[in-house]
Design a protein that fits this description.
This protein is α+β, with helices and mostly antiparallel strands. The chain has two helices and four strands, in the order ααββββ. The longest helix is centred in the N-terminal third of the chain and has 54 residues.
């Protein structure tokens, strides 16, 4: 019996190595893209969550201000006495989200008050949203909303 030798030995190995050298970087690129997309979506989710919490809390705060409230009443804090340590604290109750948000009241120009809410979201995302209120006769009316996101 005679055996015939072919020269194909090693060609399959070379083909597999060549194919691997092309597919491995492509696979790594797909994994990298998937991971980057996941991280971007998580950051986006956190920012959106923080902004929604802050805006919702500010809407809640504005709705809690009784008609006829003056700017000085907001600035005086819960005890209603100016010059005490609770000045700048929102005087009409604690926010419904508790520790996830922080409300602060600041003085603006004559007759203007700024209420600011800082909220946290997924993966430590933070948002700061403010509403400017103006004294219009007896009532405080919201004039402008301002938003800042801190990733």
């Amino acid at each position: 019996m005679s055996r015939t030798r072919t020269t194909e030995a090693g060609q399959v190995l070379a083909g597999v190595l060549l194919l691997s050298s092309v597919l491995l970087p492509l696979g790594a690129l797909v994994v990298y893209q998937a991971r980057t997309s996941l991280l971007l979506e998580q950051a986006r989710r956190g920012s959106l969550e923080a902004v929604h919490k802050a805006e919702g809390t500010l809407h809640w705060a504005v709705s809690r201000i009784p008609p006829g409230t003056e700017a000085s009443t907001l600035l005086a804090g819960p005890d209603g006495i100016p010059g005490t340590e609770d000045d700048g604290v929102f005087p009409f109750g604690d926010p419904p989200l508790g520790d996830e948000v922080a409300l602060a009241v600041e003085s603006g120009a004559e007759g203007f008050v700024k209420i600011t809410c800082v909220a946290s979201g997924f993966r430590d995302a933070r948002a700061r949203v403010s509403v400017w209120l103006a004294q219009n006769g007896e009532d405080l009316l919201p004039l402008a909303w301002q938003s800042e996101e801190n990733g």
